[in-house]
């Protein structure tokens, strides 16, 4: 047993060393880190080469909605590969049309035309290009504290501070606006909607409505802290867009495909956009695929005019097959409804945790897209770590994150936020298990409160 354990440890370290010596890690320093070395994954669990069983409380990067190791997807992918894997996107496969038709059934209104990409960033890039092409305008309005991908165009569109190191390279004609959230708004929730809408309207007037091609927003906020829209806000944005001939693009890369208890996050707000950007939950990470779902009105402009967009791997047949099977699993296993049900259970359990952890300032959640915001003091709402915190401001949160990892959980910890967005297949027992780990780690944060 001892030699077997030693062998596992050696294997694990070799896996890590090879990855750190010969590959580049994203959003990370390259040396002195100790990532999970995952040998296999099943359900809501990852299994490290050391034999550790790790519960995943953020669905990878909020994309593994159906969980890991579902062999129904494997079988669908293998079957497609045995027929045809890649063909030029100027050709068509059966699965390409089948997936487009299925997405048209899922999407509301006349959002019936799918342009397939390879990921969320390339979906946003192409939605932005199409908005500019269709309208003949050049400005794109986006929210500070949002994220739309890491390519130059997409990261310029986002308001996330990860763009600051490459700020000199940013693409032009992106205009950002501020949208406060209720927990940190000084003037009361009743004034929030009115002030937020008025602020946006003023900025549109300042920039010139006739120069604005689109407003790009997340269906529900993700990595910025699950910052919820004021009730009625997206309806007002839709009205503003209609008034000025501005397109409304909803980025559903993270919030789409059941994550919020609906097919798409914007459906919690009773609107229909002009384009839907999707990826992540479309294939749940089993293979890369993205999509821009476009209204008939926009698509019809290019019936007799060349559409100047394209990617080598657009509508890759094997990725399309994975998506078709994943969508079938959502429907067959009732995962959209399950996300809503488990979300309510999660919220009830967090309410209980608030009573014993003074460091919990706020919990924002829609379906299974949630985030704890930790504070040093509930009255002053002083954050445990500020927005875009410097390393010396992350001491407490780094200890919290390390404890979560030590206790066998993988989840996304950022600034003063702990994200809770497990796979939609999670059970109440697994939610309890995960929250017990977070509760133990929160004892560290509690000691930093006053």
Automatic annotation (TrEMBL):
<protein>
    <submittedName>
        <fullName>Taurine---2-oxoglutarate transaminase</fullName>
    </submittedName>
</protein>
<dbReference type="InterPro" id="IPR005814">
    <property type="entry name" value="Aminotrans_3"/>
</dbReference>
<dbReference type="InterPro" id="IPR015424">
    <property type="entry name" value="PyrdxlP-dep_Trfase"/>
</dbReference>
<dbReference type="InterPro" id="IPR015422">
    <property type="entry name" value="PyrdxlP-dep_Trfase_small"/>
</dbReference>
<comment type="similarity">
    <text>Belongs to the class-III pyridoxal-phosphate-dependent aminotransferase family.</text>
</comment>
<keyword id="KW-0663">Pyridoxal phosphate</keyword>
<dbReference type="InterPro" id="IPR049704">
    <property type="entry name" value="Aminotrans_3_PPA_site"/>
</dbReference>
<dbReference type="Pfam" id="PF00202">
    <property type="entry name" value="Aminotran_3"/>
</dbReference>
<dbReference type="InterPro" id="IPR015421">
    <property type="entry name" value="PyrdxlP-dep_Trfase_major"/>
</dbReference>
């Amino acid at each position: 047993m001892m030699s077997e354990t030693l062998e596992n440890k050696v294997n694990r370290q070799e896996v890590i060393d090879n990855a750190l010596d010969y590959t580049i890690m994203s959003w990370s320093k390259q040396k002195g880190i100790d990532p999970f070395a995952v040998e296999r994954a099943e359900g809501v669990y990852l299994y490290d080469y050391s034999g550790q069983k790790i519960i995943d409380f953020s669905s990878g990067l909020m994309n593994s909605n159906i969980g890991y190791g579902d062999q129904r997807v494997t079988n669908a992918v293998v079957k497609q590969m045995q027929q045809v894997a890649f063909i030029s996107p100027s050709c068509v496969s059966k699965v390409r049309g089948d997936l487009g038709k299925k997405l048209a059934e899922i999407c509301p209104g006349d959002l019936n035309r799918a342009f397939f990409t390879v990921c969320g960033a390339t979906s946003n890039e192409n939605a932005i290009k199409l908005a500019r092409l269709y309208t003949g305008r050049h400005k794109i309005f986006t929210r500070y504290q949002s994220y739309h991908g890491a390519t130059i165009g997409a990261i310029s569109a986002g308001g996330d501070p990860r763009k600051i190191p490459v700020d000199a390279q940013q693409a032009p004609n992106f205009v950002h606006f501020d949208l406060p959230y209720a927990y940190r708004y000084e003037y009361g929730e009743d004034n929030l909607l009115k002030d937020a809408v008025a602020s946006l309207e003023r900025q549109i007037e300042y920039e010139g409505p006739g120069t604005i091609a689109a407003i790009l927003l997340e269906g529900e906020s993700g990595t910025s802290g699950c910052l919820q829209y004021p009730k009625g806000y997206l309806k007002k944005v839709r009205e503003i867009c209609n008034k000025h001939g501005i397109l409304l693009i909803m980025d559903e890369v993270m919030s789409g495909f059941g994550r919020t208890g609906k097919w798409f996050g914007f459906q919690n707000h009773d609107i229909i956009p002009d384009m839907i950007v999707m990826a992540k939950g479309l294939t749940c990470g089993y293979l890369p695929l993205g999509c821009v779902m476009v209204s008939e009105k926009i698509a019809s402009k290019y019936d007799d005019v060349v559409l100047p967009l394209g990617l080598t791997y657009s509508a890759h047949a094997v990725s399309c097959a994975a998506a078709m099977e994943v969508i079938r699993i959502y429907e067959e296993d009732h995962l959209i409804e399950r996300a809503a049900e488990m979300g309510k259970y999660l919220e009830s359990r967090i309410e209980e945790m608030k009573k014993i952890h003074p460091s919990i300032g706020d919990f924002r959640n829609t379906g299974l897209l949630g985030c704890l915001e930790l504070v040093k003091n509930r009255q002053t709402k002083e954050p445990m770590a500020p927005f875009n915190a410097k390393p010396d401001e992350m001491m407490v949160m780094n200890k919290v994150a390390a404890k979560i990892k030590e206790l066998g959980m993988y989840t996304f910890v950022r600034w003063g936020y702990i994200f809770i967005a497990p796979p939609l297949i999670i059970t109440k027992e697994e939610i309890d298990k995960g929250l017990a780990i977070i509760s133990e780690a929160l004892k560290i944060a509690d000691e930093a409160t006053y």
